[in-house]
Design goal:
By secondary structure, this protein is an alpha/beta fold. The protein folds into two domains: 158 residues, CheA-289, Domain 4 (OB fold (Dihydrolipoamide Acetyltransferase, E2P)); 131 residues, 3-Layer(aba) Sandwich (Rossmann fold). Helices cover 25% and strands 29% of the residues.
Length: 315
């Protein structure tokens, strides 16, 4: 069964497929749109001396070297020695990153409204890397991790390197922007940057919260992630286009930069798709849209190749 983006992500349908895996006898999940491949043979894993304690080495993918993060070690868990370890190679932020895990279990099909927002469950309890919870059955829970924050913590230069000096002359003071982003780290970066530019910023941790804010008052611009509990960014964009203010400019700001995601954003009449963490492109797009200019997307002719997940059982 095909499990790549094209085969299941209906435009604006608020669908989610989660690859469940285990490490340290704990079940975790990752959106399959982030998954590039699964590597079973780790004989070519090259250890990297004096690296971060959770970075266990690099593997070769065609002509590229992919850093591998030991998830059990990063999360303070113990590996299940009875399992043959694998690497889930992910692609987001425009980067390939491998995550060493113990076992791949299943692919589950959910709606985003099925995702329990960890921020609302844990409240003031520290849960830095858990962003959501899904329940394949009433008895079982799978934790969804904030892979963006994990990578930002391991690669601080990605965070600090996002300082962008705006050189335009557009006055953003008094302009109201709605930022919808479930990753606290990325949301904080966006809020700070847009505030520094003079925007009045309203932020939301999921699409449902963002839609409620949009219904209350008009915005000059909406910046939305795609992967969010309750309502994803594509469904939010669709609602905005069907609302009483359908011409509100929308920028889809997603860590998933594949051709399929760009095509869906375009189909839903989002004004731009910018891949995280391209802050300069985001601000440039915001500048043009605030000035009433149209953004012409680059021509995309090829869909990303089918994922190697096609052999994994789907429920």
């Amino acid at each position: 069964m095909k499990t790549d983006a094209e085969s299941y992500l209906k435009t604006g349908s608020n669908e989610l497929r989660v690859l469940e895996y285990r490490t340290g006898k704990q079940s975790f999940g990752v959106n399959i749109l982030k998954v590039n491949k699964i590597v079973n043979d780790l004989t070519d894993l090259i250890r990297v001396p004096e690296a971060h304690h959770a970075v266990c080495g690099v593997i070769r993918d065609m002509n590229r070297l992919v850093p591998v993060i030991d998830m059990a070690r990063f999360l303070g868990l113990e590996h299940d020695e009875s399992e043959k370890q694998k690497v889930i190679v992910t692609e987001f932020f425009g980067l390939l990153t491998g995550f060493l895990i113990d076992r791949v279990d299943w692919i589950h099909h959910f709606q985003w409204q099925d995702v329990i927002d960890a921020e609302k469950v844990f409240s003031n309890i520290d849960h830095r890397y858990v962003i959501g919870i899904v329940k394949p059955t009433e008895e079982r829970m799978v934790l969804l991790l904030d892979y963006e924050t994990i990578l930002l913590d391991l690669c601080p230069h990605l965070r600090s390197g996002q300082s962008f000096q705006y050189s335009g002359d557009t006055d953003f003071s008094g302009k109201r922007v709605l930022v919808a982003e479930d990753s606290p780290a990325v949301r904080s970066m966006l809020v700070n940057e847009m505030s520094d530019l003079g925007f009045e910023v309203v932020d939301a941790c999921d699409g449902t919260e963002a839609w409620a804010a949009f219904e209350k008052k008009p915005f000059d611009l909406v910046i939305s992630d795609v992967e969010m509990p309750q309502m994803d960014g594509l469904a939010l964009t669709m609602r905005i286009r069907q609302s009483e203010r359908p011409d509100t400019p929308v920028i889809v700001y997603s860590s998933i930069g594949d051709v399929g995601m760009k095509a869906r954003a375009k189909f839903l009449k989002a004004d731009a798709h910018v891949t995280k963490l391209n802050l300069d492109k985001l601000i440039t797009a915001a500048d043009k849209l605030i000035r009433g200019e149209k953004i012409e997307p680059a021509e995309e002719t090829e869909e990303a190749p089918a994922s190697e997940l096609e052999t994994i059982p789907v429920d």
